[in-house]
């Protein structure tokens, strides 16, 4: 009778004989070669898509926007940097022009200063953006503001302010630039949303509402513009180590002034910017850049909503005792 150890040795020998046979090895090497070739072609296509493209980035002077400016500039894009602080935009422009990327990059970035929360300046800002290089290939709606507070203590003026910056501003800028894209039958609109555009957590009501609205609007836009050959990408990051919570608006409208633990432990904006570059280059339609727990929460909200609601209620009780009940 053949022992178990002998059978195992015979099986291993047969597997090795199969793998080293003249028929299998070429097949394996061929598969690896085809896969490597496809990855190379994908990388070259992504690089060609970004190089010399006119890329507009809002909220470019800090956090994720600043890192996006760096990676897109290094990839060869013609940048139009947008923000409220003219001095900070000029400093970023000078930094990029003096960087290593400038040795192979022939396009000096342009900058356009405007406040995205001011509806009256959007049309003029869009016209100024178009004057920089004559058209826009990629619009990255990145500017935004955070929020911390209870629903019951937050005035509707604060809700409107958050919605104006995070939703109405990007929508207005997108609408102002869309006609030029449609005429050329070429363009790519990117919305930097949030995982909180998929799920809502306590004490982030205004922020989550603005990001849910963002997700819905750009999903509709994608469907409507497909026939015009316009790409639309919605990117939903999790926590990023930026000043978003530090500069967040509170229920009273004041500055929050605290870097939350979740934000401090968030992903590096450099890494997220690289992911944004890849998503744009690959023309992905919808991307979630969050950890395992937030990503699972999205599915939990859809598949087991009652459990999700209980978990959020428990989180609310843990973070702050309600003083109005």
What features would you describe in this structure?
With 325 residues, the protein is α/β, with parallel strands linked by helices. Helix content is 53%, strand content 12%. It is built from eleven helices and nine strands. Strands 3-2-1-4-6-7-9 form a seven-stranded parallel β-sheet, sandwiched between helices. A two-stranded parallel sheet has the order 5-8. Strand 1, helix 3 and strand 2 form a beta-alpha-beta unit. Helix 6 runs parallel beside helix 7. The mean pLDDT is 89.
Walk me through the topology:
Blueprint: H1 4-19, H2 24-50, E1 54-57, H3 63-74, E2 78-83, H4 86-97, E3 110-113, H5 122-133, E4 138-141, E5 147-148, H6 156-184, E6 187-192, H7 205-225, E7 230-237, E8 249-250, H8 261-264, H9 269-281, E9 286-289, H10 292-303, H11 305-319
Parallel strand pairs: 1-2, 1-4, 2-3, 4-6, 5-8, 6-7, 7-9
Assembly annotation: single chain
Strand arrangement, largest sheet?
Answer: 3-2-1-4-6-7-9
Low-confidence stretches: none
Task: Please compute the radius of gyration using only Cα atoms.
Answer: 24 Å
Helical content, roughly?
40-55%
Shape, principal axes of CA atoms: globular
Spell out the helices and strands N to C. HHEHEHEHEEHEHEEHHEHH
The profile of the biggest β sheet is: 7 strands, parallel
Which secondary-structure class do the elements indicate? alpha/beta
Q: What would the average pLDDT be, to the nearest integer?
A: 89
Count of DSSP helices?
Answer: 11
Total E-strand runs = 9
Name the beta content range. 5-15%
Through-space gap between termini: 77 Å
């Amino acid at each position: 009778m053949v022992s178990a150890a002998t059978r195992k040795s015979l099986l291993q020998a047969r597997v090795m004989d199969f793998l080293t046979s003249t028929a299998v090895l070429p097949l394996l090497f061929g598969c690896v070669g085809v896969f490597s070739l496809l990855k190379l072609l994908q990388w070259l296509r992504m690089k060609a898509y970004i190089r010399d493209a006119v890329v507009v980035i809002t909220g470019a002077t800090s956090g994720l926007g600043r890192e996006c400016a760096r990676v897109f500039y290094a990839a060869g894009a013609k940048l139009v940097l947008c923000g409220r602080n003219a001095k900070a935009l000029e400093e970023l422009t000078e930094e990029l022009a003096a960087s290593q990327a400038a040795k192979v990059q022939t396009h000096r970035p342009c900058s356009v200063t405007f406040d995205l929360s001011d509806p009256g300046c959007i049309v003029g800002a869009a016209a100024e953006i178009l004057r920089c290089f004559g058209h826009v290939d990629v619009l990255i709606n990145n500017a935004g503001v955070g929020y911390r507070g209870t629903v019951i203590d937050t005035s509707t003026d604060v809700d409107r302010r958050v919605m104006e910056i995070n939703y109405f501003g990007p929508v207005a800028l997108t609408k102002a630039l869309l006609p030029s894209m449609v005429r050329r039958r070429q363009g790519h609109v990117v919305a930097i949303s949030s995982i909180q555009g998929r799920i809502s957590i306590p004490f982030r009501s205004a922020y989550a509402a603005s990001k849910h609205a963002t997700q819905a609007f750009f999903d509709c836009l994608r469907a409507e513009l497909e026939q015009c050959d316009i790409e639309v990408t919605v990117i939903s990051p999790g926590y990023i180590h930026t000043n978003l919570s530090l500069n967040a608006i509170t229920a009273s409208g004041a500055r929050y002034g605290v870097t939350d633990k979740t934000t401090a432990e968030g992903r590096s904006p450099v890494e997220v910017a690289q992911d944004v570059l890849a998503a744009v280059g690959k023309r992905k339609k919808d991307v979630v850049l969050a950890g395992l727990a937030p990503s699972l929460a999205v599915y939990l909200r859809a598949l087991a909503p009652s459990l999700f609601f209980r978990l959020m209620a428990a989180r609310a009780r843990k973070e702050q005792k309600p003083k109005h009940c």
